[in-house]
């Protein structure tokens, strides 16, 4: 998390102008490795470090170059030129020049996690799971995320040649870099009247965006909020977003070198009130961890996924008199109830590698409170489902109450046929997805052949074979 401070103010720790959290593998994010020593001197940065750095440092670090100084500090402390700072802020707003991907660093190169719709990467038919192994002939094997960002990014309307590994095949593609405005918030309604909201960073207008999406989904019975791969953004956005939950007073606790500070939430009129599940993973970092930890502490959501990144350090930004900005770690932060985040992360309640599907299944059970039948596993994609009732149903009313849903998605079409006695067959109109997760549920309200109303529902989870 960082906040921008004016260097000439002596008691700058109390004069926070701009607060933000930061960590992202999105292609637009820049963490500079090379500090231009010609632009700043050790004397420029020494007073900032002595007063603001979150822990004591040995005086010997000032004997070398500016590069040497920052190499001795933690990995989140660095120097930005004004241009690099603008790129950094644009990355939080998801506005940047590039090819339109987010990626994870692997040994071979940049493992593509997401391709932004309408981006040059999509037009070039890149896919999640592809690995960029070379950029303009330069290998990415063992490269840092910063180097990958520098090589893949560039100026608008310039072309980059990428060597792509897809499975066992390798091919090259030329892609023209463009200005990218990635969607920050995306939402929709899942089967069972469950609202889904995903956001990829914490920009300044996040809370207003979330409120607009929430209002568009008015009347849902539960929520799934997705902050997987969300690397952070503005602290004030986390404060405001947590203000949408009744009873959350504290955002986090910050431990500076010489004092502690409790950071409060910023109350909002619009509130979340329905049951909520929160999706997290190992790339949910910084502001995402503040948000997740607070919801967990105050028991406002059930967390699904994997333990978060563990970046529990807070950075401030300091303007230098001759230009440029120092980003310096000034504190560690804890959850509202004092739980350590730095180096540990936030653990989910439900550890799973399919958090969206599991969270959706959980919400369906929370909302419906139907009788749960034994999990159907290793089902063939072309399977036809047989249902045996304890009485013969009126087929038309029964058809209307049978639902088949993709977990993490919407209802799918199918046919219901009467077989014999009290047995019925449900046949999906198309094959189910290999490895997919589904739920079939029968709502109450159908009538039997004598016109009597069924007053209980049933639900079963279905796992399709690979």
Automatic annotation (TrEMBL):
Biological source species: Filobacillus milosensis
Record has Protease as a keyword: yes
SMART domains for this protein: PDZ, TSPc
Keywords (A to Z) from UniProt: Hydrolase, Protease, Serine protease
One GO CC annotation: outer membrane-bounded periplasmic space
Alphabetized Pfam families for the sequence: PDZ_2, Peptidase_S41
Record-stated family: Belongs to the peptidase S41A family.
SUPFAM superfamilies hit by this protein: ClpP/crotonase (SSF52096), PDZ domain-like (SSF50156)
Molecular functions per Gene Ontology: endopeptidase activity; serine-type peptidase activity
GO BP annotations, alphabetical order: proteolysis; signal transduction
Protein name (database record): S41 family peptidase
Domain PDZ: 89-152
InterPro entries reported for this sequence: ClpP/crotonase-like_dom_sf, PDZ, PDZ_sf, Peptidase_S41A, Tail-specific_protease
Gene3D superfamilies, sorted: 2-enoyl-CoA Hydratase, Chain A, domain 1, 2.30.42.10, 3.30.750.44
């Amino acid at each position: 998390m960082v906040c921008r401070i004016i260097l000439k103010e002596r008691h700058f720790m109390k004069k926070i102008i701009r607060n933000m959290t930061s960590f992202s593998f999105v292609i637009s994010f820049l963490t500079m490795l090379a500090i231009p020593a010609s632009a700043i001197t050790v004397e420029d940065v020494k007073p900032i470090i002595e007063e603001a750095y979150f822990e004591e440092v040995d005086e010997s670090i000032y004997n070398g170059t500016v590069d040497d100084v920052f190499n001795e500090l933690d990995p989140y402390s660095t120097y930005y030129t004004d241009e690099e700072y603008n790129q950094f802020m644009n990355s939080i707003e998801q506005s940047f020049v590039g090819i339109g991907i987010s990626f994870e660093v692997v040994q071979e190169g940049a493992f593509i996690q997401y391709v932004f719709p309408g981006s040059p990467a999509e037009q070039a038919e890149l896919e999640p799971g592809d690995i960029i192994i070379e950029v303009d002939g330069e290998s990415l094997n063992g490269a840092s995320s910063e180097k990958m960002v520098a090589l893949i990014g560039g100026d608008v309307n310039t072309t980059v040649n990428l060597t792509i590994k897809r499975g066992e095949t390798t091919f090259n593609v030329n892609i023209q870099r463009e200005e990218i405005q990635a969607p920050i918030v995306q939402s929709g309604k899942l089967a069972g009247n469950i609202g889904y909201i995903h956001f990829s960073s914490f920009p300044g207008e996040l809370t207003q965006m979330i409120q607009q999406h929430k209002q568009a989904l008015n009347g849902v019975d539960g929520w799934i909020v997705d902050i997987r791969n969300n690397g952070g953004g503005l602290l004030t956005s986390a404060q405001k977003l947590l203000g949408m939950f009744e009873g959350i007073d504290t955002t986090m606790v910050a431990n500076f070198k010489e004092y502690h500070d409790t950071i409060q939430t910023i109350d909002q009129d619009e509130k979340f009130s329905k049951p909520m599940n929160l999706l997290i993973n190992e790339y949910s970092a910084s502001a995402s961890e503040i948000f997740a930890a607070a919801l967990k502490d105050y028991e406002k959501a059930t967390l699904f996924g994997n333990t978060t990144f563990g970046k529990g350090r807070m950075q401030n930004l300091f303007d230098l008199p001759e230009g440029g900005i120092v980003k310096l770690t000034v504190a560690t932060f804890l959850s509202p109830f004092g739980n350590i985040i730095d180096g540990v992360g936030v653990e989910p309640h439900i550890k799973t590698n399919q958090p969206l599907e599991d969270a959706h299944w959980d919400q369906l059970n929370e909302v419906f409170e139907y009788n749960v039948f034994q999990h159907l596993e290793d089902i063939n994609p072309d399977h036809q489902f047989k249902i045996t009732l304890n009485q013969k149903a009126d087929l038309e009313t029964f058809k209307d109450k049978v639902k088949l849903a993709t977990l993490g998605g919407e209802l799918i079409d199918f046919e219901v046929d009467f077989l014999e006695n009290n047995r019925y067959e449900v046949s999906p109109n198309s094959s189910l997805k290999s490895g997919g997760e589904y739920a079939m549920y029968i709502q109450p309200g159908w009538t039997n052949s004598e016109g009597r109303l069924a007053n209980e529902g049933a639900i079963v989870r279905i796992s399709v074979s690979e």
